[in-house]
Each structure stands twice: as C-alpha cells, then as structure tokens.
Write a structure and sequence with these properties.
Radius of gyration: 39 Å
Structural class: alpha+beta
Number of strands: 40
Oligomer: single chain
Number of helices: 43
Shape: elongated
Length: 1292
C-alpha cells in the first residue's frame, strides 16, 4: 500500500503541462482544485461526505463582508482583532500606505534599540558601564563615550534622513485625491481617508486608489478600460464591465448614495487574475468575478468616468499582497565582517584571560614581596587577576573597532551618491537619473553570480514596429527607391500623402509605396486591406486623431502599419467595420469573428464585401476600384437618406474569410495549390534569423451554401452551455482550411538600446542571466535570440526534455540511497556531456510539474472529527517527510541542471514562481543574485533576490519603490555592476583589511607592554591619543580610500569584464585575508614596541637627560604608529588624488599639532587631571635620537611590505596589475563592437510566433455589441434589418 498516494494526490497528476497557459493562481485553495475534477467516490466516502454536509454550513472562502455606504458596519465587534493586550482594531485596513519605520515619538528609543542590537555597539555600552567601576577601570570614561556617541549619532542621522524620505513618498501617495460619497454627495477626499464600503468616482487618467467593484461608467454597458502597467508592465488596455443591474440603476449621484448592496467575497489575497464573490441587492444575488474588479495601481483610460465600491483597501489590496514580505537585506561582507568581529571577541577574551592569569602569577611571585608596590589593599592574587581581566577587556577594547560600522556606513553613503551623480547612467529622454535607494548593498554589486530579468519593459521597450513584409513571394522593407534599386543611405518614406498617417512609422522601401499607389498587383492592396479589417482593435478619436487600443501591442502595430500605408481603420459597429482605402471610406459587413487564443494562434474574420457609399459619389472612381480588385457589383440596395449599401460579389461567391496567425498553424491549413508557399517560407526564415516576429496572412472564398451550413454549427456552439470554448474551436477548424497565402509580416519587438552588448559583457564577467517572463514561449524565445542570449549554435532544451533527465536522475539517486549509500562517496554527475552551448526554456506549467509544486488536494477519504490512532499519525508524518525530501532533492537537481545551461528562460510564470526560482538558486547554489524588473509582478522577485533593481519608465513605479537601485534603461546595469559594483567591492575590501590591520597594530602594543609592567593593565599610550586614534588621526585617509580608490578606470573596467570575477570568488576579503591582516598588525605592533624599547634601554640624551621615561616612550611609539599606518595606506592606494595625499600628510600633521597642544602647560593648568603629559612632546621630540628611532621603526615596518608588493606584482601579477602596467598603451576610448551573427540563409528553423495577448481579444465584446455607443451609429438598425431581409430573400 502506497501511503504517499493515500495521503495526498496531485491535481491532474497524469496530465501533460500546457505550455500556453499561465499556471493556476498562487493562492488556490484545495476546494477550488477539488471542484475542477470530480472523481467517482467510493460508497463510504459518500456516506462521510453526506454526514459532513448535514452539519451547519459554513462558507470558508467568502468570509469578507462589505456593506456599501455604511462605515459603521465594518466597526462591529466581531470584525475587531486584538492587536496588543486589550487594544483592538478592525480587520479592515484603511487605505493609508505606511512604509516608514519611525515617527517623532518612536524614533529615539527604536533607533537606539536597533543600534544596540549590533554586537559591537552593545559591547561598547557594556565597556562604558565597566569604566564607571573604580576598581577595574584603567581608562578614562571619555575614551569610550566619545567614539560611541559619534557612531550612534552618525547612524541615527542617516536613518532619520532615510525615514524622512519614506514619509515624503508615503504622504505623496496617501494625499492623492478622488471623489467619495459623503452625506449623500460626492466630495473630494484624500486616498488615506477612503475606507472599505465607500462609493467613489474616478475620471479618465486617474490612478485607482483601492481594489473596487465596478458599478457603472460613462461607456456603453458600463465598460471601463484600464491600463495595467503598474501590475504587469503592459501598456495595452484591458477592459472591465459592470453588472447589468448596477449599470442600469447606478448612474446618477442620488442612486449611488442610496446604494445599499451587500457583498460576500474571498479574503484579501495576492491573486491578480482571480476574484470570487457575490453581490446581494434588491433581494437578488449576483455572482462577481475578476472582470468586474478594478485593482489598485491601474489607470483609467478611454473612460470619461466610472463609479466603484471599495472592496479591499490599503495593505489588503492585491497589489500590496503581491509585493511579498519586505526582507532586511545584508551583504555577504556584512555577514563575514560580523563573524570576524566575533572572532576578535574570542581573541580579546583569550588575551585578557591569559594576561589576567599572568598578573595573578606575578602578584604571587613578586608583587606580594615588593613593599614599594603595596597599595593599601590586602586582596589575594587571584582576585587581583580577576579585576585585571576586566581591566584588560577595557584596555584592549580597540581590538573590536567601534568606528568600523560607522565608517562602513559613511563609505556606503558616499558610494551611493556617486551612483546617483553618474551622468552616464542618466536618461535624458525621461529626465531619469540612476538612484541608489539603499546604502547598505553597494559592495555586493561587485559579487553578482546570477541576474534574473523580466522581459516586457525591462529588456524590451514594449513597442512593436512594422519592419518588413513578404507579399506574393516578394520581400519589402529593404532600403530601396521606387525603381527597386538598393541604397545604403536613403530617406525614409514620406507618408504626407496619407491624411490618416500618424507620422510614427519609419520605412525605407519606396518601391512598396509605388506598388500600393499604382495598384498593378492586387495582392499588395489585398494584403494591407486584410490588416485593416482582420483584428479586434478598438478605436477612439482624441482631438480629431485616431487612437487605437489593441489587445496586444503586435496587433496595434499591424493596424497602425495598414493605416500608414493607406488602409486606415476608422470605426466599427457590432456587425460592420469602416476603413479608408487610399482616401475612400467603405463599410464592410462582418458576419463572424473567430477570435484568437493561445491554442489557436490565429484569428479570422468572415464578411461580405459590402461598401458604404454616398449616393452622389457612386461613380467612376468606386467602379474602377472594384474592377481593379476583380469584383463586380451585385444586386441588393438598402436606402436611407444619404447611404446605400452594396454587396460586392466575386465570381465564386460574395463571402470571404481573412485569417492571420503563426506560420506553424497557417501552413497546416493552406490549400495544396499555393504557388508562393516556398518563397514565403524562405522569407520567414530570413525574418526569423533577424529576430523579427512573423505572422502569415491568408484568405479564402466561401460559397453561400457552405457558409450557411457552417453558420448553423457556429450558432449552436456559441450558445453551448458546457465546453463552449472547445466547441467553438472545433467549428472554427472546419472553416479555416484550404486557405490562400497572401504573405507574411515581420514586426520588431524593439529591444532597449544596448541590451545585447550589456548581456554579452555581463556574460564575459561570468554572470549568468535568466529571463523570467509571463509571455508566451515563442515570444520569450524570440527575445532570447534578439538579445543574443540564444544563438544558432545553442542547443535548446524544453520542459519535456529535462523532465525525462530529472526523472532518470531521481531514479538513480533512489537506487543509490539504499544500504550501500554510506560506503559510496557523493559524486556530482553532470546532466549534459561537456562541450557545446545549451539553453533551457521552460514554462510555468512545466516548472510546477518538475519542482513538484502542483497544488495538492485532499484524498478522497474525508476526515471526520474523530481522533486518529497513533499509528495513523505516525504513518502520515513519515509520508509527509518522504514527500518533502523528494521535493527538495528534485528542486536541487533542477537547479543543478539549469545552472549547467548558459541561459535559462522561464516563460508563462506567475509572480510567485519568479520569486521561487530566485529563492531556489539562492538556497542551493549559495550564489549572490540580482533581480531586475519594471512592474508590480516583479516586486516579489525583486524583494527575494539579494539585490533588486527597478526600471523606472512608462510602466509605473511599483517595482522602483520596492527596489534597492533604479534607473531607466537595462544597459545601465553593466555600468552599475562592472564599474560601481566592482569599485565598491574593491574599496570596501581594502578598507576592511586596512582597518583591522591598523587596529591590531595599535592595540597589541599594550599586549607587549604587559610583559614589562607586571601585567597590570597599564596603557602604553596617553588616554587622549587612545580616544582620538580612530576618530581623527587615522580615519580620514582610510575613508577616502574607501570612497575614491580605483584600480583601473571606468572605461577599462567595461572593456575588460573579466576583472569582475575577483568579487564573485571572494578573493579580496575572506578569512585568509583577515588572518593575513591580523598577522601584519601583530608584526607591526611587535616592531613598534620593541625597536623603541631597545633604543630607550640605557640611553642618555644629548643634554645629559635620560629620554627613557614612560611618557617619552609613549610619544615615540604613538608617533611611529601614526606615520606607519598613514604611509601604509599610501602603499595600498591605487588611485592618487590631491585629496588622498592631503589626507595622509594632513592626518600626520594633525596628530603632531594636537599632541603639542595637549602637552602644553596652558591646558594642564585648566584641566590638570585630564592632561598629565605636560611638556612631554616638546622635551622628547627635540632629541635627534628619538627621531632616528621613529624613522628606523617606520622603515622596518614598511620596507618588507614594499618588497613583497614588488615581488608579487612582478612574479604573480593579477589581471588588474597587468592592465595597470600597460594602461598607457591601451586605448580605453575604443568602443566595444557587437559581435556579428553568422547568417546562414535557409538554415534557421526558428519560428517567431505572433504575440497574442494573455487573454482573448475583444472579439466577444465587439460581436455582442456591448462596446458600441448606439447613438453614434444610427445606421446599425438599418444595416441589421437590411441584412436580415437579404438573407430571407436568398433563402426563399
């Protein structure tokens, strides 16, 4: 018995994933899945189910209740949730958005609490408390307090500035206005004042403030057109439609104010494409779905006004639910730095403990027997050792660098400003600069392994352009004049002769214009005529100009192209379409629209050649036009005041079908006698090799009798109560055959400038790019070729291919996991043989199938409310563990396989799947990831990745607001990573290595000094020197190096992307580098202490005075230390500027200036207890012997470093060293040239399919007449009556 199968099953387990559809919604419930497929249930299950059904029913899914125009309803006690102790708040969120962290009252306590959560800050707070205890303090309290206040203050100011910016952004959104019903009237209200149940009015171009139920609008049947760019990055419009009952009764202000509808619907969730609910009004219930809901973030378009009822507000809206959790992001260096600080803590404790033991031993052996050391206390040696332990914790506290964190923050802040100020990442067309929206991740930009990119609006401009076409076997679109002569440089075609031209199309083939105007080849005009009539585009007139709204950008591009070439679509009614053919307006009857979907990959239109002419204008011109098309006029006339309707018949019949679609489906349906079939095939190969999106056009003459028989089947399928879509598709198949091929179009899905070059450079930097998109597989594959992620030499694997590979791997792993598994070492076996370039293209459905992420439904054994046995519980737990282990192993195998591919494209994926793919790579590859997108559907992915980048363009700001960095064009990514990211990583690594070095060199002098002072925790320096060492004497040079240093210029960084790999491999900062810095500091401190010690032993100054007192010794060591560490940073600096040089020598001068001031008699008189080194500096430093000692100490510290650097650069130079050595010979100005594709005519088998919209088009809307304003088209009724009369006449 298989317990896994018994416990839970997978939905449609044996079905093949559908590549064309986006998988189920992210939050589908088990009950929703259960409803999809009802199996025959056993008798016992039926009895159990009936027993459950007899209980009191409870609606699990529709628990969200909304009452229109009644705010008090939502404040009832059973809608209140306990927030904190007895404080309660409504479960209905208000509409205010809050992204800030603090307010005026919480800033100080919360910020201090967050800062003291850092181990180093808390450690220094404890030190400050210890220094207040007289028995153990060895340093003045200000030596810790001053640096701690500086650190806390700088960090607090930075956090305050960031939070003020968040407040401003929140206020800007929350204070937007719209009209809300208050006191039975529409009044202006701010977004933050809107509540669930409010009725609001929105106008054209308004943003939608909440998730609302559409009640009515200014359009016919209360249609409302919305732009969803904020959600999915698409600028083509979607339509929503209100219920008929609300459209009929809720148009006026008083009826809207009196509206008291009650709604029960699903709880707030992240399903953008799904909504389930019921409206109860007028003693009737009305079902609600996603087509009646307007989502927050969308924009009202082409609709003068609309009214809606707020269902979800604020944080409950779908766009906010879909944003995912806000994750606190930290860099890899942050984690490493924390571990190193913990290591230093351990070292500090061990050193203090060792020295404390030494002091206890010294006290027992020497201290107790030295009368002159008696301090009046009779403490035991062990107790004195215990006190000295804490004393050494205080003395050696600078091993843990308190200023490290604040210095890191300052450097990151400066690097962020450099990104903001980079003019080469500024996009002047949109006036959009690059923006570092966080200051904590800069160096991680230099460590990226994987980039996850959206397609629409990120790689592409989401702008489709008509580039070429093939008509009757001839290709048009090259640079040619009217005489068919090719020219490399030629002026674009002048479309000024066309009154309907929009002036946006750039076309260079003058010969095509010549063919259209002369009309010698009827197929040319027929080609553009087809584009003008076979579509579902909606048209509107704005300021006298035609404005097209298409279900997909491709369709809009084709209709616009036909418009520019003289065949302009003007208007349509329920059953007619009007176009301008080279200046002559004609209206055609539309008998049927065969809409496209993802399975059909084509659309067709069936119509009669009816022409709407003015009576006075029926003359030679129209007759000549008809004759040129081989058409003669037939015999029906319907007359009204100014128009007559003529049916145009061809010799074979008067009905024609026009069809356009993907070549893969069109070629299967062509008539076997198509003379231009091969020529068009060759043209398609050429278009595909140029990464253009292709589409085939064809037509068919239909006899009257054939159409009548088909129409009966069509009408029956249209009213089918079950499986209507399948029935319609079957009927469509019957008529769409034996087609005559006209030609093919080629559309360019315009990439953003520089996308291929950017991807190529990033690939040379060993960064892998994965494209995650909701688009169709063919579209995504085409973009892969266009941006050169894929080439003709790439072997492409699909979901079905890798599913078999993964299944085989799982079987092998299961076989090896038996008894002998512990004796067999784990071996990583590649999925593919070595050599060759491979890419993976996988759809969301296959992704769920492979990763075992398909929704699970409960087993058919209903679980009643009685306790199970312990054995059943144990078996179920084991079963779940096995399933989880299998799922985890399968996911790891998938990641391993995908990472063996040079490129991965995931298409038809949901926002949750995008985030899941990013998380899988993070989890199983431990790699640094970057996600880049432009729409709300990318927000979850952006938040999941280590670094999120938002594209700020025409597609909205939702992704930008959730991102860490933003800019306007994808090409700026190469500069962000290869220049700013690499520089930031190198600077931060140098800074950290140097910082640890200088603190170890400074602090460990106390350690060596302990061996000569009885381990008494006596300091080797003056207290004020200890206080100011990290604050003034050594801070500025290291900060400037962390801000300004660069090994090579930005141009060379872009020219040699291979320099980037040092960050990916963590070569510049790791535990090995840390211990090298530690050892360097130890050796430096050893030299700093023992050379002056040897020089001071048994010496006398020139004036007969002994310079070997403690204070002079402290000044000598301190002076040698300051000169050494500042010169050391000079050796580490690669990019010298005046500022760097000034900071190094200025810090040394500042040290001597402050030291002479602090050692003067005047300040001692004012503060005798704080300044006790009176006259030490002037007395000691006037001795040449002291200066020689300082010079010798500095030389011994630095000369070995210089020698090692010279040998390493000579014998083992890095790639950066080689470029620096020859940078004068390198021509940094040379532009990188895009590699040329190897073009092989006729070899490419790649197909670029038509990009149908993700939903059906507007055909149902048009055919039903719901989108038509009847008052605008008074002839509708006349035409319909005339058509009916004509059909009755023909039947008789």
């Amino acid at each position: 018995m298989n317990t896994e199968r018994d416990s839970e099953t997978t939905f449609e387990e044996d079905s093949q994933p559908n590549d064309e559809v986006v998988p189920y919604s992210d939050d589908e419930t088990e009950d929703e899945l259960e409803d999809r497929e009802r199996a025959v249930e056993p008798e016992q299950n039926r009895v159990n189910r009936e027993a459950e059904e007899n209980r009191e029913p409870f609606k699990k899914d529709c628990t969200w209740q909304v009452k229109a125009n009644d705010r008090h309803f939502h404040e009832q006690p059973h809608f209140m949730n306990t927030k904190f102790f007895c404080i309660k708040e409504s479960k209905y969120a208000n509409n205010a958005i809050r992204t800030y962290k603090y307010n005026a009252f919480t800033f100080l306590p919360m910020n201090l609490f967050e800062q003291f959560k850092r181990a180093a800050n808390f450690y220094f707070l404890v030190l400050l408390i210890l220094q207040a205890i007289p028995q153990i303090t060895t340093l003045a309290w200000y030596t810790t307090l001053v640096p701690l206040l500086v650190v806390l203050g700088v960090t607090a100011i930075k956090d305050l500035v960031d939070d003020v910016a968040r407040h401003k952004m929140d206020n800007e959104i929350n204070n937007r206005t719209c009209e809300v019903i208050k006191d039975s009237r529409f009044k202006i209200a701010k977004w933050k004042e809107i509540q669930v149940g409010d009725v609001i009015r929105l106008k054209k171009n308004d943003f939608i403030p909440a998730d609302i139920l559409l009640l009515s609008s200014s359009e016919p049947n209360s249609l409302c057109y919305v732009e969803t760019a904020e959600l999915d990055g698409e600028t083509n419009l979607k339509f929503k439609m209100a219920l008929e009952i609300t459209h009929q009764y809720l148009q006026k202000e008083n009826s809207l104010a009196a509206f008291d509808g009650f709604i029960e619907c699903e709880e707030p969730n992240n399903r953008l494409d799904k909504f389930t609910g019921t409206l109860f009004w007028r003693n009737t219930s009305f079902p609600l779905d996603a087509d009646k809901i307007l989502l927050r973030g969308c924009v009202i378009r082409n609709t003068d006004f609309c009214h809606g009822l707020v269902i979800f507000a604020g944080a409950d809206t779908k766009i906010m639910k879909n944003s995912g959790k806000t994750r606190f992001k930290r860099t890899k260096i942050d984690y490493l730095m924390n571990y190193m600080v913990y290591t230093i803590f351990v070292v500090l404790i061990l050193l203090s403990a060792g020295l404390a033991i030494g002091h206890a031993y010294w006290e027992a052996q020497i201290g107790n027997f030295s009368w002159y050391l008696y301090d009046g206390e009779d403490a035991t040696p062990s107790y004195r050792g215990f006190l000295n332990f804490w004393g050494y914790i205080i003395v050696l506290n600078t091993l843990v660098p308190i200023s490290l964190y604040v210095s890191v923050e300052v450097i990151r802040l400066g690097q962020s400003y450099f990104i903001n100020w980079d003019l080469q990442m500024y996009y002047p067309e949109k006036d959009t600069p690059a923006k570092a929206r966080t200051t904590t991740l800069n160096e991680q930009l230099g460590q990226i392994h994987y980039i996850f990119s959206d397609k629409t609006g990120t790689l592409t401009q989401n702008i489709m352009t008509f580039k070429k076409c093939c008509i009757n076997g001839q290709i048009y679109g090259d640079h040619r004049d009217a005489s068919q002569n090719s020219h490399s440089k030629i002026e674009p075609v002048d479309f000024s002769w066309n009154m309907y031209s929009d002036g946006k199309l750039v076309f260079y083939d003058h010969y095509l214009i010549e063919q259209i105007q002369l009309g010698k080849e009827p197929e040319v005009r027929q080609f553009f005529f087809l584009l003008a009539v076979c579509h579902t585009v909606m048209v509107d007139r704005l300021d006298g100009q035609l404005n097209y709204q298409a279900a997909s950008p491709d369709e809009g591009a084709l209709v616009s192209a036909a418009r520019n070439f003289g065949f302009a679509f003007l208007t349509r009614t329920q059953n007619t379409i009007t176009i301008s053919e080279l200046g002559t307006e004609r209206t055609y009857n539309v008998l049927a629209m065969l809409d496209f979907n993802s399975d059909r990959k084509r659309m067709s239109i069936i119509g009669t050649n009816a022409v709407d002419l003015n009576l006075a204008d029926v003359g030679v011109s129209s007759k000549m036009w008809a004759a040129s098309c081989g058409i003669w006029v037939a015999a029906l006339r319907v007359v009204d005041a100014q128009h007559e309707l003529l049916y145009l018949r061809t010799p074979e019949g008067n009905i024609r079908l026009y069809c356009k679609g993907a070549d893969t489906v069109i070629y299967e349906r062509l008539h076997r006698m198509n003379p231009m079939k091969q020529e068009t095939q060759d043209a398609l190969d050429i278009f595909a090799s140029e990464t253009l999106r292709t589409l085939c056009l064809c037509y068919k003459e239909i006899e009257e009798k054939e159409y009548e028989e088909w129409n009966k089947k069509f009408m029956a399928a249209s009213i089918a109560s079950t499986n209507r879509d399948e029935a319609l598709d079957k009927v469509y198949e019957e008529i769409e055959k034996d087609l005559i091929l006209l030609g093919a179009t080629a559309i360019e899905d315009k990439l953003q400038d520089g996308v291929p070059e950017t991807i190529s450079k990033l690939a040379k930097a060993d960064i892998k790019i994965w494209v995650l998109t909701g688009d169709k597989k063919e579209t995504a594959e085409n973009i892969g070729f266009a941006c050169e992620l894929l080439t003709e030499d790439t072997t492409i694997c699909y979901g079905e291919d890798i599913s078999a590979l993964l299944h085989t791997r799982m079987e092998n792993q299961r076989n090896r996991s038996g008894v002998y598994a512990r004796f067999v070492p784990q071996v990583h076996e590649p999925f593919f043989p070595p050599g060759g370039s491979r890419a993976l293209i996988i759809t969301g459905s296959w992704l769920n199938e492979i990763l075992l992420e398909k929704k699970t439904k409960r087993s058919k054994i209903l679980k009643l409310k009685f306790p199970r046995t312990e054995e059943e519980r144990r078996m179920r737990t084991q079963s779940k563990r096995r399933l989880e282990a299998k799922k985890e192993q399968q996911q790891q195998n998938f990641v391993d396989l995908a990472c063996e591919c040079s490129a991965v494209i995931c298409c038809r994926v949901t926002p949750k799947q995008k985030a899941m793919v990013v998380d899988l790579v993070k989890r199983y590859k431990k790699a640094i990831t970057l996600a880049i997108g432009d729409g709300a559907n990318d927000v979850n992915m952006i938040k999941t990745a280590h670094i999120g980048v938002g594209i700020s363009g025409q597609e909205g700001m939702q992704a930008v607001m959730s991102s860490d960095y933003s800019f306007a064009q994808f090409r700026y990514l190469q500069r962000l990573l290869l220049v700013h990211g690499r520089w930031s990583y190198i600077r931060m690594c140098k800074f950290l290595r140097y910082f640890f070095y200088k603190n170890f060199a400074f602090t460990l002098v106390h350690f060596w000094y302990s061996f000569f002072n009885g381990y008494s925790a006596q300091t080797a320096y003056e207290d004020w020197f200890i206080t100011l060492y990290n604050v003034l004497y050594s801070s500025l040079p290291v900060l400037l190096m962390g801000l300004l240093d660069q090994d090579v210029s930005d141009k060379l960084s872009l020219r040699f992307p291979g320099l980037y790999v040092v960050g990916q491999r963590d070569l510049l900062f790791n535990y090995r580098r840390f211990f090298v810095s530690l050892l360097h500091g130890v050796l430096t401190s050893l030299i700093l202490f023992f050379i002056p010690l040897g020089a001071y032993l048994q010496t006398v100054g020139q004036d007969g005075e002994a310079p070997s007192d403690y204070q002079s010794f402290a000044v000598t060591i301190a002076s040698a230390l300051i000169i050494t560490v500042n010169f050391q940073i000079g050796l580490d600096t690669s990019y010298w500027t005046f500022v760097n040089a000034f900071s190094i020598f200025g810090s040394i001068a500042l040290y001597f200036g402050i030291m002479f001031d602090f050692h003067s008699a005047g300040i001692h008189v004012l503060f005798p207890s704080a300044f006790q080194f009176t006259g030490t500096a002037s007395n000691a430093l006037r001795q040449p012997y002291i200066w020689l000692t300082i010079i010798l100490t500095v030389a011994v510290c630095l000369l070995p470093v210089v020698a090692i650097r010279f040998l390493s650069m000579t014998i083992w130079p890095s790639e950066s060293d080689k470029i620096q050595k020859h940078r004068k010979q390198l021509k940094a100005e040379e532009q990188w040239k895009r590699r040329q594709n190897v073009f092989r005519r006729g070899v490419s088998r790649r197909r670029s399919a038509y990009a149908f919209s993700h939903q059906r088009g507007y055909a149902d809307l048009i055919s039903s007449g719901r989108s038509i304003r009847k008052k605008r088209y008074p002839l509708d009724a006349v035409i319909a009556d005339g058509t009916a009369e004509y059909r009755r006449t023909m039947e008789s």
